[in-house]
Amino acid sequence: LAKTASGEVMLAWTEKDDQGLISFCLSISKDQGKTFSDKKVIFSGNGIGNSRMMRAKVLSKKNGTFVAIFTNRGESAPNASGRGGRSSNIVFCESKDGGNTWTKPANVDSDPKQGIVRGFFDAIVMSNDEIAVAYLKDVANSTKHEERDLRLVTSKDGIFQPERLIDPVVCDCCPINFLIDSEGNLNVFYRDNNNNIRDIARIVSKDNGNTFSKPEIVFNDKWEINGCPHSGAVSTINGKGGLVSWFSGTDNEMGIRVATTEGKKLFVLDDASAKNQYLVKTPNASLLFWEQNKDENNPSQIAFRKITDNKASEMTWVEGSANSTNITGLTVGNKVIMANEVIQS
What we know:
Helix content is about 0%, strand content about 50%. It is mostly beta strands. Strands 5, 6, 7, 8 and 9 form a 5-stranded antiparallel sheet that branches. Strands 10, 11, 12, 13 and 14 form a 5-stranded antiparallel sheet that branches. It is globular.
């Protein structure tokens, strides 16, 4: 779920037909999510990627242009180091007529090298109405099984510029998260890797991605793990500050953390089944949604807590949400609407 520049609600998703062809689709609501238009197909292909690790998304610029960004996979021969057999590019399509027609997919990254993985991305419209895309990319000539660094591409006059390296040593398979804060700054949250201590780091750009602050760990869990947890952070504006949530597997307090972007821990969801959290800003508070096993008859259900002035309400279950996954939420007026998949009817 997202909003257009004019305030309409967009719902974007992927679906697969009987032959395995995947379509990236978009629908617009002109009545705050009560009803939606017929679906518009952005692109169809066999390699489209869409998951909680790298969620395909549609961005709306102030000038009315829609930009769809998603991963597109291909097969390739192994490279000189023996790696290969899989290839992933981050691509974009544009629409200047409200999503009715779209350009063909083009690579965000202008580096022509194939046979490598680019993924785990996030994308956002910055304060200057240009787009930023951050992603993990295979390190050239690496001899490790998986080694990736953090890259950034930004647009200038609507044209993506050459990629830049913004952190050379990061966790290899944890998704990136962007936040435009209340001052219009670009925040990047990602899981760092300092000698296998894999806590969430933040860097901030006050000039629309041209320069960044030094990485700072949001909260020093000192979670040491010799592998990748495949789990990133989510964030939202909260008053003049922000909130960030992520999973940490430390022995003393394993679970999903919620903290301010400045590093003040608010609470931890310590139920072992809690996962796939999502933060939503409302005019006077924030909501944290997540999945959790309610009982043996309802293995997965959606719960939420309301956060006001850095204080959290008790947990509330969302009625009728059994077997739900992949939550996304959006504030419209004085309500929050939510979309999710149902695993089985």
